[in-house]
Amino acid sequence: MSSLGQMVFYSDFDDFNVWKEALQHCLPELEIVHSTAVTHPEKVHYALVWKPPQGFFARFDNLKLVINLGAGVDSLVGRPDLPDLPITRLSDPNMARMMAGYVLFAVLRYAREIPYFEQAQQEPAWSYRHPRSPEDVHVGVLGLGELGAYAATELVRQGFTVHGWSRSQKEIEGVCCSYGTAALPAFLGQCETIVVMLPLTPETRGLLDEHHLNLLPRGANIINVSRGEVIVEDALINALKTGQIGQATLDVFTKEPLPLDSPLWAMQQVLITPHLASVALPLSSSPQIVDNVLRICGGKPVLHQIEVMRGY
Amino acid sequence: MSSLGQMVFYSDFDDFNVWKEALQHCLPELEIVHSTAVTHPEKVHYALVWKPPQGFFARFDNLKLVINLGAGVDSLVGRPDLPDLPITRLSDPNMARMMAGYVLFAVLRYAREIPYFEQAQQEPAWSYRHPRSPEDVHVGVLGLGELGAYAATELVRQGFTVHGWSRSQKEIEGVCCSYGTAALPAFLGQCETIVVMLPLTPETRGLLDEHHLNLLPRGANIINVSRGEVIVEDALINALKTGQIGQATLDVFTKEPLPLDSPLWAMQQVLITPHLASVALPLSSSPQIVDNVLRICGGKPVLHQIEVMRGY
Q: What is the mean pLDDT of each run of 10 residues along chain A (312 residues)?
């Protein structure tokens, strides 16, 4: 069934062989080729890619579909070399669960005052602090797309008082939802911990600037698992220095890898992870990739197509 | 309605006024008195206590019910001065949730390799490690009572492969359950992280000794939220030194507060918290306390009564 054509794979982060095996398990006829091993670019009909180099798509004249190997497509949509084809992203509940797991870890760590006890252990001191009831802990989730909504629901399950903010109106059981620019100040003012889960778009770039960071209660905690550029990094650094922001868990940064001269590295009140809050999962995402390949073959519209103009 | 009698309160950890308010909200006729303010001990019919001093009960001749202000009753059942009365413990889903929150935090921290990234931040280094799929992470829950079963279910929800072990046969959806002494070695051998949630009884005291710790895969992680005495602390310290145990999150210890000369304090691979994985919650536990008071008044059997001989 060579009519399917080939799929080219590119990622600096993901394991080609694991993806190849998972995809071929779903669709044995699909030939998956690493971008360095393509001998007949005209045979390539699909591209499964994460941040391919500029000019990557030029040699594939018969490309029919681009699949972003992840949920966030901001690195793809702004490219001048993006072909005029359907672009899809992964929409995998298991990715949402993995992201929510990271968020749960980070929020529970603050709610249970783990950094305080780590500090006490350094001294060392047995420094008892009676835990707060979770309903007294107000957590805000900024961005209620698939990933944000999933994480917010898991936070509700822990008993936290959860506030949600999004661009457009959303309803999530147990979450106090607000939306639109006018509602943002009130949302920020009531959250001791906020979790940034917005997609990066022209509207969200730099949204959390000095002004908005100052609207949070003094000493608030920030967890960023979306994109570094949603927060003005210099404003965040400054707010961490002044104590306006008490603590931060940062998985994403304006520039990645985070430059070694960034003051964030040395801040005791900051936990840095190298952009891995969630990753594409071969076993659970392969069926939807294969489904879209078959849709293209059958002339049907693909699922999880992104709107390039909107940015996600 | 003075026929209800008084309730005496004792705890070095819990806030008397918060408990008094929560209980009186449920049953305004109930008079709650702090143990230091009792003027007529003969009027005291109920004792709501956490680790009261030896001899505490002697002056209360008309006591009808002892309520342990917590889930674990090991500190109460072994006492020589325990009156021959119904003893109840708290059984509150919100306490189970709080405990599960701590367990989730600790398991996610290991599953997502946070200590590794904290180390990288010290250098500093952007040291990417691709996250593992949660189903590849095998977590074992030792003890499947109310608290253990709840935590195991939450771990299943995160996608981990969860094994459970208990004294008697249990079935929990999504958990691979085994039971009895003969099954313990196989259980231990397959868990990269174990969570100790057993009650402390004569049977579980010192259960995790050198022999059993050696049955875990090399470098396994231990999370203990039950009682320190379930693990032979010297054996644990030794296993941490040799690397047989890779990391530990310890909320409980053989002696509390943990003595400042314990080698555990200085171990980088150990996270110490001062016995607060879960605490009694006034709002959610007061209704069941009041319910038992009314049952005593009505001559009915109380709920959540402990079997002193069995130890829990």
A: 82 94 95 96 96 95 95 85 93 95 98 98 96 96 97 98 97 98 98 97 96 98 98 98 98 98 98 96 94 95 88 76
Return the HEC string of chain A. CHHHCEEEEECCCCCHHHHHHHHHHHCCCCEEEEHHHCCCHHHEEEEEECCCCCCHHHHCCCCCEEEECCCCCHHHHCCCCCCCCCEEECCCHHHHHHHHHHHHHHHHHHHCCHHHHHHHHHCCCCCCCCCCCHHHCEEEEECCCHHHHHHHHHHHHCCCEEEEEECCCCCCCCEEEEECHHHHHHHHHCCCEEEECCCCCCCCCCCECHHHHCCCCCCEEEEECCCHHHECHHHHHHHHHHCCEEEEEECCCCCCCCCCCCHHHHCCCEEECCCCCCCCCHHHHHHHHHHHHHHHHCCCCCCCECCCCCCC
Write out the H or E segment, with its range, that includes residue B231. Answer: none
Distance of CA B202 to the CA centre of its chain: 16
**Predicted complex ipTM exceeds 0.85:** yes
The sheet that has B65-68: what strands, in order across it? B31-34, B6-10, B44-49, B65-68, B87-89
Predicted structure pTM score:
0.94
CB contact under 8 A, A131 and B279: yes
* Residues of chain B with C-beta less than 8 angstroms from the C-beta of A273: 112, 114, 117
Cβ-contact A62, A5 below 8 angstroms: yes
- Within 8 A of B125 by CB-CB distance, chain A residues are 260
Active site residues of B: 227, 275
**Rounded mean pLDDT of chain B?**
95
* CB atoms B274 and A133 under 8 Å: no
Size of interface A-B (CB pairs under 8 A): 130
Intra-chain end-to-end CA distance of chain B, in Å:
33
Tell me if chain B has a CB within 8 Å of the CB of A121: yes
Whether the CB of B18 is below 8 Å from some CB of chain A: the reply is no
Q: With left for phi above 0 and alpha for psi between -120 and 50, is residue B70 left, alpha or beta?
A: left
By annotation, the residues of A acting in catalysis are: 227, 275
A101 and B134: CB-CB below 8 Å? yes
Are the Cβ atoms of B124 and A13 closer than 8 angstroms? no
Q: How far is CA A73 from CA A15, A49, A53, A84, A273, in A?
A: 20, 11, 15, 15, 20
User: Is B104 within 8 Å of chain A by CB?
Assistant: yes
- Whether B108 and A94 lie within 8 Å, measured CB to CB: no
